[in-house]
Amino acid sequence: MSTTTLTERYVNEVVRRLPADQRDDIADELRAMIADTVEARDPAGAQSAEREVLTEMGDPIRYAARYTDRPLALIGPDYYPTYVRLLTLLLSTVLPAITVVFVLMELADTQDVGAAVGEGVSTVLTVGAQMIAGLTVVFALAERVRNRDGELARTADWTLDDLPEERQPDKGGVVACAGAAWYTLLISLIVWQHVAKPFRADGDSQGIEVLDPALWSGWIWPVLVGLAGMLAVSLARVTARGWTVRLAVLNAVAQAVFALPLAWVLHRRLLFNPDFLEVAGTDALTQQVYSGAAVIVLVMGVSAVVTGFRSVRR
Q1: Mean pLDDT, rounded, for 52-67
Q2: Distance from chain centroid for Cα 192
Q3: Residues paired with residue 272 on neighbouring β-strands, in sequence order
Q4: Which residues have C-beta within 8 Å of that of residue 250, sequence separation ≥ 6?
Q5: Counting beta carbons within 10 angstroms of the beta carbon of residue 56, is it exposed (0 to 12), middle (13 to 18) or buried (19 or more)?
Q6: What are 206-246's pLDDT values in tens digits?
Q7: Angle at the Cα of 163 (from 160 to 166), degrees rounded to 5?
Q8: Nearest to 78 by CA among 53, 97, 61
Q9: Element (DSSP H or E) covering residue 208
Q10: Which DSSP symbol is given to 45?
C-alpha cells in the first residue's frame, strides 16, 4: 500500500461529506498538511509515519464535522460516525429484506398484488421510521450517559483498517446525466400524449391518449412527482460527484412515490386508455401480463434504492 493511496483514501472519506464547492480546496489543504507532518516526523520511514499521523487524525467522518457549520449536538462527534454507518446499513439491507418478506407473506395470504403493494408501503414507512427513531434515541441516550459520567472523548474505536478502499474516479456523473435525460423524456412523453392525443381511430377525427385520461384525476400525479424527484436526485448527483446519504434517502423516497402507485395502476389494469388498446390491437392482454409488469416495476425500484445506499458505503 503506497503512502499516496492511504492518504487519498482518508482525504476522500473526509471531503465527500463536505459541500461540493469546498471539496477541492480542503482536499489540497489536507494532503499538504499530512505530507508536511509525515516529512517532519520521520522522512526515512514515511509509510509508518503516515499511518501514525492518520490514526491520530481519527475517524474521517468526525474530522469532516470540523469543516461544517452544523453542530452535531443530539449525537456527538464520538458516536456520530458509528450512527451514520449503522443507519445506512439498516436502511439499505435490513429494511428492504423485511419489506420483501412482508410483501410475500401478504401476497401468499391474499393473492392480491394491490394488497401486497399496500403492505410494502406500510412496511417501508412504519419500519423505516421506527429504525430511524429507535437508533437515534439509543445513540442520543448513550451520548447523554457518556457526558453525565464525564467520559473523555475516545478515538481508539476507529483504525485505518476501517477506511474503505480507494474510491475510483467517479463515473456516476455520466450515468446521472443519462438518468436525468431519461426522466425528463418520460415526463415529457406523459404530458405530450395527454395534450397532443397522438392516435386516431379509423374514421374518427378525435385524438386518443395512450394513457387512461382518468389517471389525471389522481394516480398520474404521484407518478409524475416521483419522476421529478428522481430527476432532481440525478441532477444533484452530478453536482455532488456521486452518492451521499441524503441523496440515497431522497432517492428511496422518490422511487417509492413513483413505483408503488405505478405498480398498483398496472395491477388494476388502469394504465392504458382502453380506446388506445383497441386501436393498437392489444386489448387482449392478460391479467398475468399486467401483474408481471407491476412486479418488475417494484423489483427495479428496490434495486435502485439498494444501489444508491451501497454506493454511499463504497
Answers
A1: 80
A2: 29
A3: 211
A4: 229, 232, 233, 236
A5: exposed
A6: 788 889 999 998 889 999 999 999 999 988 888 777 788 78
A7: 125
A8: 61
A9: strand 207-208
A10: T
Q: Report which listed range, 5-14, 22-31, 224-233, 288-297, is most confident.
A: 224-233
Q: Which three cell numbers stand for residue 104?
A: 410475500
d(CA 270, CA 212): 7
Residue 169 has pLDDT above 60, yes or no: no
Pairwise pLDDT comparison (125 vs 209), residue with the higher score:
209
What DSSP assignment string belongs to 135-163?
Answer: HHHHHHHHHHHHHHTTPPP--TT--GGGS
185 neighbors 202 (Cβ within 8 angstroms): no
Cell of 80: 456520530
SS3 313: helix
CA gap 178, 276 in Å, rounded: 30
Instruction: Tell me the residue type at 86.
Output: L
Considering only residues 195 and 101, tell me which one the structure prediction assigns the higher pLDDT.
Answer: 195
Query: Residue 275 carries which side chain, given as an amino acid letter?
Result: D
DSSP-assigned letters across all residues of 240-268? HTS--HHHHHHHHHHHHHHHHHHHHHHHT
- pLDDT beyond 50 at 182: yes
Q: How many CB atoms lie within 10 A of CB 88?
A: 17
- Cα-based distances in Å from 314 to 12, 57, 166, 311: 11, 21, 9, 5
* Percent of the chain scoring above 90 in pLDDT: 10
